[in-house]
Amino acid sequence: MLKTTNLAQQIIEAAKELAEAGMLPATSGNLSMREPGSDSLLITASGRYKAKLSEADFIELALDQQDPEILAQASAETELHRQLYRFSDQITSVFHTHSKAAVLISKVYPQAVNLTGYELLKALPGISTHKARISIPVFENTQNINSLARTVDAYMLSNPDTPAYIIKEHGLYAWGSSSQQVLNIIEALETIFEIELEYLKLQGNSYATSQNLF
Asked: How confident is the model at residue 123 (pLDDT cuts 50, 70, 90)?
């Protein structure tokens, strides 16, 4: 079983921080955590206002949970969280946000957001230089979450160091070995996304014709 009180409190604090930053408007987004190596996770229940979560706003479920009644209470995107936890025992936190910058940049770069040269890239796991080249994939939005989870899994098998991905015109998924690491990843990427978008405007480039290639 999970140490639910501890995990819930960490998620509550992370959700409040993200909501205050405008990344979880209305009841959007979902957050989950698990103890290292655990086969169970704690995830925000569907339709909850993330800025004011309480311990009653979570669902505990197993990675192989099949009970439709339990799954129906959790986020509709639970399978995207479970895919990540199955992918690596090192992942203990998965946060999904709905920021303006992530949505906009997925319209500009509908396949991948390729980044290099930013000092903030060093906030990402395993990155020690601004010269690193990072690709944040963009996946098509779909209501078929199981299909999307399979698509993400196939991508990550070929790109295991990917720190995050965007669902087109929807939002960002980021994960890591602690809630703080995920918050760092989100803040770094969101800041870079905002800079990229502002730079395009300063250059007078049309979003529709922008290129984003290494």
From this structure: very high
Topology of the domain comprising 4-209: L-fuculose-1-phosphate Aldolase (3.40.225)
16-41 burial string, b = 16+ CB within 10 Å, else e? ebbbeeebbeeebbbbbbbbeebebb
Render pLDDT for 148-194 as a digit per residue (tens, 0 to 9): 999 999 999 999 999 999 999 999 999 999 999 999 999 999 999 99
Domain residue spans of the chain: 4-209
Residue with tokens 């944040």: 136
Burial of residue 199 (CB within 10 Å: 0-12, 13-18, 19+) is exposed
Q: Helix and strand tally (H, E) in the chain?
A: 6, 8
Ramachandran angles phi, psi of 167, nearest 5° = -90, 125
The verdict on pTM exceeding 0.85 is yes
Three-class SS state of 201:
helix
Is pLDDT larger for residue 85 or for residue 3? 85
Pairing of strands 93-97, 30-33: antiparallel
Q: How far apart are CA 142 and CA 188, in angstroms?
A: 26
Strands (E), 126-199: 133-139, 164-167, 171-176
Q: Do the Cβ atoms of 32 and 46 come closer than 8 Å?
A: no
